[in-house]
């Protein structure tokens, strides 16, 4: 919703409108939540709370499905933790006596801790739900960041992650949710319409009278505003007469119906396109949204995977030779350059 501003002008800057969030649509590929769900609420804190509650329902269902999918792995890890000697013997049938004779309590405890760590990582992987947006790291996230941080409990204890590049939020995460921007996995400048087209989704983004919708009361408007109200001074263009007739085709009775339709049109095709994007990496055994937050992270993951398959060895400096790291880093620092 764009609220007109009349008294915030400066010598070199003129504010014309303020963007207040009033609605959000949520859609997923989780069983029972595949239909778009639109929430309309003029109070931002309440809007974010309702969004969080609905996403938590999706997250709980997804966690349950993930636990069922990895039930064998959870069961095996639990057995190994309860009986560590059993798992070690399964790995080395011929050295039963050697294990019994030479494996001390400390080594056994180390093995148990490793198994527990794997169990925790698998549980965290299943528990955390990825929340995707398109090109909102610089814009939409900034509109609700303070309310979202409160909803996610970012000020409390536990593992929290906030990655920010200048004014752009690349990642916001806690144990339950991980907010990412799909635009970070695409070439620069790719718009939403091109993203859908690139991944074989035919539906396109809707249209909306942004400059006309400047008050909550207009949600109850019984008809669409005039065709002229859809003119965008930013794009210097208007919608077609065919698009304008959509109101009658969909049998809408209020402007809120139109708002719901526009929001849902954004998220439904988006889910399908994201699934097609993921499939591009499944053959490489990469879950892109769990493995990274952007294209460079994916490239690094694929580099190390390829190197490991080729038998390459990647070594790090140990504590004894830690001075080499600092020496190389200092000598690699660049400086001013003059070319004649």
Automatic annotation (TrEMBL):
Top-level taxonomic group: Eukaryota
Protein name in the entry: DNA-directed DNA polymerase
